[in-house]
Amino acid sequence: MRILLDKFSKSFGSTKIIEDMDLEVGSGEMLALLGPSGCGKSTTLFAVCGIHRPTAGRILFGDRDVTHLPSQERNVGVVFQSYALYPHMTVEENIGFPLMVKRIASADIKKQVADIAALVHIGDLLGRRPAQLSGGQQQRVALARALIRRPDVLLLDEPLANLDAKLRLEMRSEIRRLQKETGITAILVTHDQVEAMSMCDRIAIMKSGEIVQIATPSEMYKDPRTSFVASFLGNPPISFLKGKVQQGAFVLGENGLRLPLAAVSGIPDGTPLSLGVRPEHFGTTAGIPVEGKVVFAETQGRENLYDVVLPDGSVLRSIQPVRDDVKPGDSVRWHLDSASTFVFAEDGRRL
Amino acid sequence: MRTSRALGLVMIAPAAVMIFLFFLMPVVLTAIFAMTNMSTATGISGGAWQVTQTAVNRLKAEMPELAGGIAEPRFVIDEEGLAALEALKLKAGFGTELRTSHMGEVFPSRREAERMIKALKDRPSTREVKQISDLFNRSVLNTRFETRDQLMASLKKLGFTLTPAEQETVAATTYTGWVWTTENFRIIRNSPDMAQIFLNTAFYVSVTLLLFNVSYALFLAITTHYMPASTASVFRAIWLLPRITPVVIYVLMWKWLTWDSGFISMFMGQFGYPPKNYLLDSANNAWFFVILINGFIGASMGMLVFSSAIKAIPQTQFHASEVDGASRWQQVRHIILPQLRWPILFVTCYQTLSLLASFNEILLSTRGGPGRATEVWSLAAYHTALNNYTGNLEYGLGAAMALVLVVVGIVLSLIYLRIFRYDTLISKPLIED
Ligand SMILES: Nc1ncnc2c1ncn2[C@@H]1O[C@H](COP(=O)(O)OP(=O)(O)OP(=O)(O)O)[C@@H](O)[C@H]1O
Ligand SMILES: [Mg+2]
């Protein structure tokens, strides 16, 4: 079922948190709401599930306007940031709660709970209470409780934040599999870009209550609209060089490195710019040579990560296949793939 | 480890002393008093032996003959009487003849003694017979003896020969001081008055507790939970007023309300009803107001406890249950109430004990009336031991009644703990020893 936010605004008292947000999530699509802490992700999610009433604007499920519908009637499943399991109920009662309040026969509930519990691999924990579960197990219970009544919309508020790295990987694919199998429309709130990129069909990047860009993960990676988006996606993150336009080229510092770029043609000389360089585009086999000094080296197993300080003091990050010949302190002369760099205006706009 | 244990003991020592002095000692003293028959009449120090009419009445059950004898006057011809006779300066022959032929004789009744005097050779006139007989009247009735032996000697002189067992009975019935006894508990068990007071108490405590201290308090806490914060706090403040008003003034306001010139009378007067004292005109009305007066005070405390307990439930649980489709009522039933088990237990326990033990509101409003309709156990104990209509304050019986209250309180608390499955409510300490 399609979700549409139309000029959605939300303020608490006099503080405006979100203003005129437009967002459409296609039927069966999984969308990531990605953004730094406090940017309004949970607030948006709470408005979709009906816990918060929008200050202005409409919310549509399919063609139905649910703006003024109480959450009880929206048929959404939510996995809360803190799971919000009921501490006095067993796992079985927790998962069965949405059915129980619908007065479904208890034999039916038992069967459905068993099915969904098997799906999220907690079939053997049904008798326990939430306090007796690990974070990962609690998270699965919350997921099972959100899924059991076959909601039209699944909302996940940082569901993986409390898990260890291995479990997180596992649950990532698990949730994605469940979402695809059930064909449910889902919104995943996260501030982890890897999670967003690996799990979702599209990503919406938020910054202080606004959506900066919506795109598929690879589009967004290759074509960020602002420096904020570029800096948010990618691990290890992109590095920025500050410079000016000089005769159709980007010049770093005073008479420093000079990069002729198509993107800067037609921009008046002296305009300050910043250049975004992803680590994989520095240290390539071809491109413009750049000299600097390695100050930091780290191996990540398959690849090595280097920080290189240029003569003017700015830092470029480079990721390369493992090699043993470079140590911190070494001077290097590596190639920069200038065609793959992004040029941003001072206000962060991509040029 | 060992030093920390010892330190712990040292730290709690002052508290332990306090607990002993102010919590345990009163109970122990109550138990001790409960095993005596102390009252205003017996005093709290020792007593004497006195053949009062009440003592004779009591003696009648076991030794009817002796009781009858003691109660009657007795006449003994003895030196004491003869000396008094001489002082009267009647004819000397009376004294001489009584000494020589009648010395030591005992006459069980006045008639017999007077017949003997009349037969004296010097022929006393009827007036003289009366005068003389009076001098030899030796009744023990209403005589006070400082020791048991004096009483026994005097009885012997009067011609009562008693076996040691009989002596024991007589001594016990005539003793005016207090003695150790379990009589108080027999009285409590057998007296129909006590049974009525017990029922009154059960009714008062259970109705006030269920209707107000728990149910109404829960109702207030839950409704204020769903109100906007500012409205809720105004509402809570209003319900706190009965608790923070001094009880004398609070009850006085109720009296103003219910007096025959009070608000209710005035209001009902508009519809042609004659004014009356609504508080005391019937037992039902008295109960109605007694329960309201106490209920309004009790409800505020429950409301505070329950409100803060509801506040402690994480907000997300309410959000989650709403999203899960639960209605308000289902939220209350499945999310709030189960998590209020401990506060409900606490309030039930605490309020049961305070309702059982406190009687100030009843004392100030109905004084247990009309008649003894609203007399509850603690008030009855107070009346028995400290403020009696008859003036004979029965400390021992009052203490026994108080002891019954303590035992009932403990038993009820234990039952509550079982009902609410206390063991499942307390979690294991996080820091292991
Ligand atoms: N009930 C509220 N009253 C006032 N301000 C609120 C309330 N709830 C949230 N806010 C504010 O709204 C902003 C957005 O909050 P929100 O919870 O949506 O952040 P978020 O993006 O989910 O962050 P996080 O990643 O840390 O969960 C924050 O600045 C927060 O302080
Ligand atoms: Mg959040």
Describe this structure in words.
The complex is a heterodimer of chains A (351) and B (433). Chain A has 351 residues and is of the alpha+beta class. Chain A is built from eight helices and 20 strands. Chain A has two domains: 230 residues, P-loop containing nucleotide triphosphate hydrolases (Rossmann fold, 3-Layer(aba) Sandwich), CATH 3.40.50; 106 residues, Nucleic acid-binding proteins (OB fold (Dihydrolipoamide Acetyltransferase, E2P), Beta Barrel). In chain A, the strands form four sheets. A six-stranded mixed β-sheet of chain A has the order 6-7-8-3-9-10, with helices on both faces. A five-stranded antiparallel β-sheet of chain A has the order 13-12-11-14-20. The two termini of chain A are 36 Å apart. With 433 residues, chain B is mainly alpha-helical. Chain B has three domains: 30 residues, no CATH class; 126 residues, no CATH class; 241 residues, MetI-like (MetI-like fold), CATH 1.10.3720. Chain B has 22 helices and four strands. Chain B has a two-stranded antiparallel sheet. A two-stranded antiparallel sheet of chain B has the order 2-3. Chain B is elongated. Classes of the chains: A alpha+beta (351), B mainly alpha (433). The site of adenosine-5'-triphosphate has 13 residues of chain A, from strand 2 and helix 1. Adenosine-5'-triphosphate binds next to strand 2 and helix 1 of chain A.
